[in-house]
């Protein structure tokens, strides 16, 4: 059983004493709201896990959006897109799906040589079949 003692300092501050043998995280209720107290190191670990998870999700969505546009060289497009996403992160907290799609659209417009042009591809195939 957790032993938690609290003392109210003023309207917005409490001093909370938790018994050393208590299980951490400690669950407390203040003003009918539930809270969990964890160590600073555990909190930092949680933040890092969330950040890494967000990065993995963004990379996964980015990969799928790039593949939809049929790149000639996936890695080249990914490197350019990743740099653009990092710029978005500088002025916005996390990019969303529309940001990622806009980045891919911009890359395709500015660097069309990085993507397969379906019309030209079929023209080449037709020309090859006529030459045979």
List the helices and strands and how they pair.
Blueprint: E1 4-8, E2 14-18, E3 26-30, E4 33-37, H1 40-68, H2 74-91, H3 97-110, H4 118-131
Antiparallel strand pairs: 1-2, 3-4
Features:
alpha+beta, two-stranded antiparallel ribbon, 15% strand, 132 residues, rod-shaped, 4 strands, single chain
The assigned structural class equals alpha+beta
Shape: rod-shaped
How many DSSP H or I helices?
Answer: 4
Question: What Rg, in angstroms, do the CA atoms define?
Answer: 27 Å
Helix content: 55-70%
User: Which spans have pLDDT < 50 for at least 5 consecutive residues?
Assistant: none
Mean pLDDT: 84
Strand order of the largest sheet: 1-2
Measured distance between first and last alpha carbons? 84 Å
- The arrangement of helices and strands along the chain is EEEEHHHH
Q: Summarize the main sheet.
A: 2 strands, antiparallel
Provide a brief overview of the structure.
With 132 residues, the chain is of the alpha+beta class. It has helices at 40-68, 74-91, 97-110, 118-131; strands at residues 4-8, 14-18, 26-30, 33-37. The chain has four helices and four strands; from the N terminus they run E-E-E-E-H-H-H-H.
């Amino acid at each position: 059983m957790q032993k938690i003692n609290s003392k109210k300092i003023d309207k917005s501050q409490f001093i909370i004493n938790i018994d050393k043998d208590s299980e951490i995280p400690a669950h407390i209720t203040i003003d009918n709201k539930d809270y969990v107290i964890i160590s600073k190191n555990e909190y930092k670990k949680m933040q890092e896990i969330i950040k890494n998870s967000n990065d993995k999700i963004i990379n996964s969505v980015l990969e799928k959006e790039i593949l939809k546009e049929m790149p000639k060289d996936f890695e080249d497009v990914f490197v350019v897109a990743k740099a653009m996403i990092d710029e978005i992160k500088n002025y916005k907290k996390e990019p969303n799906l529309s940001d990622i799609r806009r980045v891919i659209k911009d890359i395709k417009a500015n660097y069309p040589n990085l993507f397969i042009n379906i019309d030209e591809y079929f023209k080449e195939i037709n020309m090859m079949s006529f030459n045979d």
